[in-house]
Structures are given as C-alpha cells and as structure tokens.
Specification:
Elements (H helix, E strand, L loop, with lengths): L6 E3 L3 H6 L3 H15 L7 E3 L7 E7 L3 E7 L6 E9 L6 H15 L1
Parallel strand pairs: 1-5
Antiparallel strand pairs: 2-3, 3-4, 4-5
Length: about 110
C-alpha cells in the first residue's frame, strides 16, 4: 500500500465529525482514506465559490452531512469543516468559516 497522505484538521472539524452518527463517521473515514490514497471520494463536488481545489464530500444518512477539505497541497490534506447540512444551500456561516480556515493555510 502506498504511503497515506496525512490529514490536518482545522478548527473544530475533527470534534464536529466525531459528533456525527456512527455510520456517517464510518463513511467519512472511508472517503478520507480514499483521498489519502490519491483517489476522489464517491460523492463530492467542487466548492469553487470558496477556493480553487476546495471540495465537499457528501454523505446522506438520516440527514445531510458534509466535510469540506482541500488536498491540492503536497504535504497534507486539510479538513476545513465538518457539519450537518440543514437546508438545500450551504449556510453563509459555514461558508464564512471555511473561507477563514482556508486563509490560515495560505499564510
């Protein structure tokens, strides 16, 4: 097996993901491992409104759950945010939080 690319969790993203139901956590774990191995997750979309290379993993199980990450840097995968989505559109405060955490990486 190839060497796994490390994951860097920003802010409360890891703690937030740990609050998800067990099956949802398991699915995100599988998806993040795929990314660590250089593959795309099963269900994702680019978040170009936030920044180039920012992607959202989508898991649906008794609700909508999201993990937003960026993997374009060679040294690590940055998990920017993990949250339960309550409406069709991603909430403004979630987008603002991701943008602020993205700024921390670029410094």
């Amino acid at each position: 097996m190839d060497k796994l690319k490390p994951i860097t969790w920003l802010g409360t993203s890891r703690e937030d993901l740990r609050e998800f139901p067990g099956l949802v956590r398991q699915k995100f774990g599988t998806e993040l491992m795929s990314i660590q191995l250089g593959f795309d997750p099963a269900d994702w979309k680019p978040m170009t409104n936030i920044g180039q290379g920012v992607k959202e993993i989508r898991v649906q199980h008794e609700g909508q759950y999201r993990v937003i990450y960026i993997a374009k840097y060679r040294e690590t995968i940055y998990v920017l945010h993990a949250f339960r989505k309550k409406t069709q559109r991603t909430a403004r405060q979630d987008i603002a939080l991701v943008k602020n955490r993205l700024k921390l990486i670029k410094r």
